[in-house]
């Protein structure tokens, strides 16, 4: 019986903490009403939360807010994250759904670096290698990142022509990046390799900074222009879920 009571108290305390998290500050009366408990019960539950610095109480207004302890927990969680591990579930899910190759890259100015690759074994292998570098302007993963970098980043890039479809004019590239921001995903339409199309989306960290990107890649005979419109929202949704696990959100 005591263990059951302790479990119930813990669940109530967590409910109190979650309600405060979702607000800009709640008084004892407001908090009690929000969780459906008496003020005396809520007061008892908040004592250890305040002691652990998970909650703090404004001395002037009496309102409860999240304490510094929650920041320390969040930082410890983020420090322990490995991007490849965080993204692995989404990468394998995409491969299972679309039967194409999925790439994960990080941004290392002025390039992207491929840190993971999940392939559909039945298709032709992509030439990309883990650890290799790629350009920002001609790859889907690169454009997905570039679209959320400062506008003058384009000025510092060498817009090398990789194929006859590569966008090498800064003005055209900026127009393309504006389209990426509007739709939430980028497209490499045979711009980096002559027979390959890719669709990519940005990944944001807990500060809202773009740090990585994920893409679906395949031969243009399989990833047609019509299929791009189907794959775009899928890769954008996967990137958003990865961002969420990193403490960030999609734009």
Automatic annotation (TrEMBL):
- Looking at the keywords, is NADP present? no
Lineage: superkingdom: Bacteria
Show where the HTH cro/C1-type domain sits. Answer: 17-42
Q: Which GO annotations describe the biological process of this protein?
A: negative regulation of DNA-templated transcription
Q: Which residues form the HTH iclR-type domain?
A: 7-68
A GO molecular function for this record?
A: DNA-binding transcription factor activity
* Segments forming domain IclR-ED: 69-248
InterPro entries recorded for this chain? Cro/C1-type_HTH, GAF-like_dom_sf, HTH_MetabolicPath_Reg, Tscrpt_reg_IclR_C, Tscrpt_reg_IclR_N, WH-like_DNA-bd_sf, WH_DNA-bd_sf
Q: Which UniProt key words apply to this protein?
A: DNA-binding, Transcription, Transcription regulation
Protein name, as recorded: DNA-binding IclR family transcriptional regulator
What is the organism of origin for this protein? Answer: Nonomuraea muscovyensis
């Amino acid at each position: 019986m005591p263990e059951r009571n302790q479990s119930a108290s813990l669940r109530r305390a967590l409910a109190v903490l979650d309600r405060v998290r979702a607000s800009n500050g709640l008084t004892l009366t407001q908090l009690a009403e929000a969780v459906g408990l008496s003020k005396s019960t809520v007061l008892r539950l908040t004592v250890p939360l305040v002691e652990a610095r998970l909650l703090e109480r404004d001395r002037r207004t009496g309102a409860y807010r999240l304490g510094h302890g929650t920041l320390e927990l969040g930082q410890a969680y983020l420090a322990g994250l490995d991007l490849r591990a965080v993204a692995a579930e989404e990468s394998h899910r995409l491969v299972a759904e679309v039967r194409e190759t999925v790439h994960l890259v990080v941004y290392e100015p002025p390039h992207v670096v491929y840190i993971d690759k999940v392939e559909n074994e039945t298709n032709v292998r992509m030439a990309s290698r883990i650890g290799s570098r790629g350009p920002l302007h001609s790859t889907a993963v690169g454009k997905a990142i570039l679209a959320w970098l400062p506008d003058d980043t384009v000025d510092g890039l060498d817009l090398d022509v990789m194929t006859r479809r590569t966008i090498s004019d800064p003005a055209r590239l900026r127009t393309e990046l504006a389209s990426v921001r509007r739709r939430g995903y980028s497209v490499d339409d045979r711009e980096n390799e002559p027979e390959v199309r890719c669709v990519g989306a940005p990944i944001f960290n807990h500060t809202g900074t773009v740090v990585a990107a994920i893409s679906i890649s395949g031969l243009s005979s399989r990833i047609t222009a019509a299929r791009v419109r189907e794959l775009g929202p899928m890769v954008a949704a996967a990137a958003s879920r990865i961002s969420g696990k990193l403490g960030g959100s999609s734009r």
